[in-house]
Amino acid sequence: MGIGIKGKKLKIGDVLVYIFIVLLTGLSFMGLKIMAGQGDEVLVQIELNGRALESIKMRQNWAEDFREIRVDTGQGGYNTIRISSEGVDIVDANCPDKLCVHSPTIKVPGQSIVCIPHKLMVRIIGNSQVDNAVDDTAS
Amino acid sequence: MTKKIKKVFFIITMGIMLISLMTACISQPTRQYDKNIFALDTIVTLRVFGDRSAKKAMDRVADRIKEIERHMSPSLEGSDVIKINQAAGVEPAQVHEDTFYVIKKALEYGRLTEGVFDITIQPIVELWGINTEHAKIPSEEEIEEKIALVDYRKVRMNEEKRTIFLEEKGMGIDLGAIAKGYAADEAVRILKEAGVEHALLNLGGNVITIGRRPDGNSWRIGLQDPRTEETGQDHFGIIDVADATVVSSGDYERYIKDVYKKTGERYHHIFDPRSGFPAQKGLIACSIITSSSIDADALSTILFIMGHEQGFELIDQLGSAEAIVVTSNKEIYTTEGLRDSIISSNDYYRIVD
Amino acid sequence: MRKTRKLTLMALIVSQALVLHYIESFIPVLAPGAKLGLANIMTMVTLVLFGFREAVLVVIIRSVLGPLLGGSITGIVYSLSGGILSGIIMSILYLKFETYFSLMGISTAGAVFHNIGQLLTASWIFGSIGILYTYLPVLMLAAIITGNFNGLVTHYILGYLKDRLRQGG
Q1: What percent of chain C has pLDDT over 90?
Q2: Domains identified in chain B, total number
């Protein structure tokens, strides 16, 4: 039995599945673009259980903001987040699946990394969606 | 044959599904549009989210605010306010319906507060000249002379002819404490009529929000720290709002800087119409949160003049607004409805229940 | 097929799905969430042998019991959302449009929607659609690989099973 036997040939529908995948990938890049917002103010925000723990305002050169933050997520859990010129990454964690450690490095506003078991999210927020900072001031 | 038809049908359906998926995401780009204008003696910033029609509505708002300024400016030649003041004691002046409405509303607040809110304060404003080059502390006699001209009951309105008449010569009106509020309400009306669902406007410190932020969260509004040079903080509190307006008043914006440098006393721009002096009821800042901007604008001035206790009593009685005040003892008080929603990260002030 | 026979087969399938789910937790992942999704093989086998309702049943049982074997309770919600969505999509493709799809195509579509379901759930729980956008591209790539692999395996298993089942009457 080799490739190409009955039932394994590439069919028209399969091609559509691939087209769908390509479109979806394109759409998510576009979604990121839209979310990125304008302006150059960028915030790295760490949220635990939906609550913002820390918001770090990034400078133009990310290397200046290099740091590692160890977040205690309760019940002995922790995630270590590294901010470097590469972007933001979870470099260590003691969650069961370690998916967050394998997550892609994020740098563009709109992107986020999650650690589902620890209910931790790290996200990058662009100017138009800065969360912890106020939207405006009444004076 | 039927198989072929089925195949074609299938491909078409899949195609339509894909295209509709794409257009659902692309055709309605919610973009952010910003515009800054200088009007009503202050900086107006407009931030509107939506498609191109939202941008057009934003441009109409800018035009409308300029138009309101032309009617209500105390300094623009030919404005209704200047016409009324020049004709004081002589003859009624015919005004635009915007101006008429605002004065009517202002006089209602005058009656409600028995003169705490009084647009005929203009002679006192002019006498002190705060925020002008000739700002000074006037003598008792000067104040006594001018305060005699301050009386909201001496404003005559003629609904039919749409005229305003100030009974005595030397009287004058100043709509500075309410015009921005009216302009804001008009801006909201125009944007909402155009179907705008998310917008953030700032009319010289009056913050107006439409809907929520595009990401679904409430707008996060900072309340200006009145002593920022001492505390090093920007805000004395933060509040999350949606579809609401936040207006602040305080002694920190406009005051006689020379006197403050020498004596540390702040002679600010919010005058008590009963004394002719800057209001001294123990407040250094206050904010009103409500849905109507014209009300918020008037109420924040009223609250600042009345002070914490009397002011809160009035606001509770009205029942449509929430308020927060900062006293000169660095204490923060809020009305019932705000108690749990104010976020304070500023240790300089103490929230009192 | 007799009722007891069906019941026995279903029980076997569910336990195999669980075993696959468990084995998978030992296989290191290269990309986040880009698991092989071996349990999906059993979903497809059920779909082909029994049909829609049985397939979804297998998905639900596996999604609830799987995280209890190795993983956290919160995992149930993600397994369920991904599993059910992909189960429904695969059923539609297989039962209505079988002529146009190979098993690999159906399996790939299943993998894609499994990821979409989980990401939407995560986006909803964490309140950030950014999660969807961040993870989707890399997961789509992974879905092509794992989907084809699982589809191929399913193809062979079905070939084997069909013979055996026929023999057994």
Answers
A1: 34
A2: 2
Select the residue of A14, A25, A116 nearest C104 (Cβ to Cβ): A14
Same domain, B126 and B229: no
With a cut of 80, say whether residue B248 has pLDDT above it: yes
Chains that touch A (3 or more CB pairs under 8 A): B, C
Cα radius of gyration (chain B): 25
State both tokens at B176. Answer: 């500075």
**Domains and their CATH numbers in chain A:** 37-129 (2.60.320.10)
Q: What is the ipTM of this complex?
A: 0.83
Residues C3-168, CATH architecture: Orthogonal Bundle (1.10)
Tokens coding A124:
């990058």
Express each pLDDT in B268-307 by its tens digit: 999 999 999 999 999 999 999 999 999 999 999 999 999 9
Please indicate, yes or no, whether residues B97 and B233 belong to a single structural domain of this protein. Answer: no
E strands along chain B, which residues?
Answer: 31-39, 42-50, 93-94, 155-158, 163-166, 198-203, 206-210, 219-224, 235-241, 245-250, 283-290, 322-327, 331-334, 342-343, 350-351
Angle at B72 between CA B71 and CA B74, to 5 degrees: 120
What residues of chain B lie within 8 A of the CB of A20, using their CB?
18
DSSP run (H or E) holding A68: strand A67-74
Contacts of A135 in chain B (CB under 8 A): 200, 213, 219-221
Closest by Cβ to A112, choosing from C134, C137, C144:
C134
Tell me the average pLDDT of chain B: 89
